[in-house]
Design brief:
Blueprint lengths: L5 H40 L1 H36 L4 H18 L1
Length: 105
């Protein structure tokens, strides 16, 4: 039995590894595609499931938007309080606060 030079052995090993990796990727692709098709078929055949999923998605989006808006407004208010001591910006913020208080009464 004749030994191959080390470079050729490495090339053969790489080739085998690449082949195994390609086979694994093909299997994973087949599994995900079939799972996705089953999911799509299930959702389009069961109208109650479609309605349920859409309601849950809508509620989740609404809650997410509400919480996100609250966080952004809270950060804005916090940053605005840091600028109250500045001459022009502070005066503008105080006048804005006064207008808000007048509208609340």
């Amino acid at each position: 039995m004749r030994k191959l030079p080390s470079k050729e052995r490495d090339d053969e090993k790489r080739s085998e590894d690449i082949t195994k990796l390609e086979q694994l990727i093909d299997r994973l692709e087949d599994m995900t595609t079939s799972a996705r098709l089953k999911d799509i078929a299930y959702h389009f055949t069961d109208k109650k499931e479609v309605i349920k999923v859409n309601i849950i998605a809508g509620v989740a989006r609404g809650v997410g938007l509400t919480l996100g808006t609250a966080v952004v407004l809270a950060l804005f208010a916090y940053i605005a309080t840091l600028f109250i001591d500045m001459p022009l910006i502070g005066e503008w913020i105080v006048s804005l606060q006064n207008q808000v208080e007048r509208l609340q009464d």
